[in-house]
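task queued by scheduler; priority normal; single chain, no ligands, no partner chains; default sampling; output format set to structure tokens
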Amino acid sequence: MAAYTGYVTVHWEKVEKDAIAALDTDGDGEIGEKDVRALWSKVEKVLKFNLPSSSGFVAGLLLGLRA
């Protein structure tokens, strides 16, 4: 909201670079199928660890992906 109204400037190139660095599990510089599978594996571990407490995580994840 602050960026939209002009109060702050967001350097989207840096945001993209940092997001790719955080999500790129195979180190090829792009987010691909291998990365998604590796990240999903990590999400599954969290979900399987304690299903009742992770249901809130899933709800937030789905709402975040929907936006």
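post-processing summary
- Residues 12-66 form one domain.
- The first helix runs from residue 12 to 23.
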